[in-house]
Amino acid sequence: MTVLSPFVCRGQTPYTYISRIPQRTDAYFQTFTYLGEQRELLTVSTFLTDSTLYRIDTYRIAGPPYAQRIPLDDRLVVLREGPTKVMYPNGQVYLSCLYRVNQLDGPFLLYYNDGTLKRRELYKNGSLRQSHCYTPQGTEQPCSALYQPIMFNGSYKVLQRYLEKNIQPVLDRTGAVDAQVQLTINEVGQLTNIEVNSYSKANDEDLITSIRTVIQAIPQQVPNQQNWQPATMDGVPLTEVQRFFITKRKGFTYVNMPLSTPN
Which DSSP string corresponds to 205-216? Predict the structure, then answer.
């Protein structure tokens, strides 16, 4: 049962957004615990509706000078710091890892639902140093890729050119020189949400609406298929985000689209 994306123990994004208040839905609810002299450390515990513990995530809240650059009043800008743990519905640990300054640093452990070790990896400052995988019987076996990022069902160069060509008039009209875009791609490859932010034109509705329109109009690449293939972790499709960054320099628009990153 996947309530939230449980696969967060990889990736090295510069920051993470979370809601300022605990979330409650038909599938889960959260509690927040603040620690530290300045309440700079935050533990988010997520429970299923029957109060079964589903996961624990720990964060360090980004300092005010950094946070103020992000025009997101309803969310906190945080770095992953400390342990992350995800549970099976039966209470067994599924996944356990450690972060330091938003990078994996230490053991990464993945378990079968009976508690048997499935995968053991060791990270140092975000870099994978060792990887060992095991069958349910405990025999070591070759490791396949744990995480597969979101993939575009077409040429990334063609997509980049499309975005640069169609976003250029938007930047010219609004006077913006930058934008940060976050696409949410669900487990079946559907584009379910588009977030647009800008340092130079914060909360400019024309900019936000126009960039969303450009993205929604990306031509279909393969007949009868979504434009995106979902990310997978441990072979399971999951909802993830694809970020890209728009800059305007010397009258030209550039789009940088790194691989998908944790939600």
Answer: HHHHHHHHHHHH
